[in-house]
Amino acid sequence: MNSTGLYGLLLLLLFNNGASQVIIKTLPGYSGNLPFKLETGYIGVGENEEVQLFYYFIQSESNPDMDPLLLWLSGGPGCSALVAIFYDFGPCAFDVENFDGSLPSFILNPYSWTKVANIIFIDAPVGTGFSYAKTSQGYSSSDNKSAKDIFTFLRKWLLNHPMFLKNRLYIGGESYGGKLVPMIAMEILRGDRERLHPQMSFQGYIIGNGLTDSNIDFNARIPYAHRMALISDEYFDSAKINCDGKYYNHDPNNLECTNALQRIQECLSHINQLQILDPKCGNKAPKPDDFGWDQTFSNDNSIDRLDLPSTDQECHIQNYSASNAWANDQTVQEALHIRKGTITRWRTCSDLISYNQNVESALEYHKVLIKKGYHVLVFNGDHDMAAPYMGPLKWFRTLNLTIDDNWRPWLVNGQVAGYTEKYKKNDFNLTFVTVKGAGHTSSSYKPKECLTMLHHWLSRRPL
């Protein structure tokens, strides 16, 4: 064995303390062997590995040796990786139509992103899903700490899976996870500069319906509502003038602004923020404070808690009761090799985590990253009012990028699937995509279109 191989082995032995991984061949709710390769496990991070982060790794169903490796973050903060796996773009989905409150069954998703990529779905930050801490102090986290923990997780995961070191690596996240994506990318960049082992084949990152800068993203909601004919010209002009374009965290002493926003709120109070064409149903999404809605409007327009059942058949996603029933089932936890006694109750999106949102804007991270030759994909459902597509278009302009491919439609099966625009600065490439008719999150509404989008982008082919 040469010195490089010996060094790698020593690092693996050093970092493998507390790590565990197992291949899962069958799961309750699915008849027969799983038609995809699933691995679950824990990796310890932080001081004395007091934080144990749980993950699901699903190999590409095409060519795992050559296909890219994608680390994916769900939103919240505090939403489990199972949200992405079962409700978004993973290889399976719950059979909600036949769910009667007992152990749910699940079906296969023909448009899973695992058709073209190896994907690590992580329960992060600590306290999310099946991730836990060995001490009470270990449960405290923040944007900065979570980014560092996830970077450490990724290093250790790659040391435990050296066969994937050569695969092109991407970091991706949706909703609140979009803010952490460039922060983790920055950690990878620092690791490369410090020559930390292993050296990663990092190529770029993906942000879907994401949060980047609260003031920009949230202030885009009212212009978006006006553009989508949800509020009148008169109401919009009044708010724009009296609030000086600052609707989020506006001055409470500015009565003219408050009154203008109140009229707008009356127009929007029965609109589903996550998909403006859907009925406003209960238990549709993460915690209500994720997207600062109550910092824009004074009265309550919060999203109902996830664990309340809904019987409205018109809802796009009726409820998350199926995931709660499945993940809290003892046979499921045994099949996933969950460590006994580490959690009391699994939650789809936990509002009990101790988390400090200490980074309001991720723009400064993007400004550093554009100096590198990374490839970036930013996509938004064009019917998402919680994280409207107008937000990214505004923060792109602060990066001083050059338009490389003008705004145009992109097609799937001859039909317009959305619109795209490409930006460039030196070797940095950013592709922006709207997904026509999609809400928050995009692939749960338009799975075929989103798989097409991802496949083209990973293949470096234009949409």
TrEMBL record:
Annotated keywords: Carboxypeptidase, Hydrolase, Protease, Secreted, Signal
Any one of the GO CC terms: extracellular region
Enzyme category, top tier: hydrolase
Pfam families assigned to the protein according to its UniProt record, in alphabetical order: Peptidase_S10
Cellular compartment(s): Secreted
BP terms from Gene Ontology: proteolysis; secondary metabolic process
E.C. no: 3.4.16.-
Statement: the UniProt record of this protein carries the keyword Disulfide bond: no
Keyword set includes Cell cycle: no
GO molecular function terms attached to this record: acyltransferase activity, transferring groups other than amino-acyl groups; serine-type carboxypeptidase activity
Organism superkingdom: Eukaryota
Classification via Gene3D superfamilies: 3.40.50.12670, alpha/beta hydrolase (3.40.50.1820)
Segment forming the signal sequence: 1-20
Family recorded in the similarity comment: Belongs to the peptidase S10 family.
Descriptive protein name: Carboxypeptidase
Organism expressing this protein natively: Olea europaea subsp. europaea
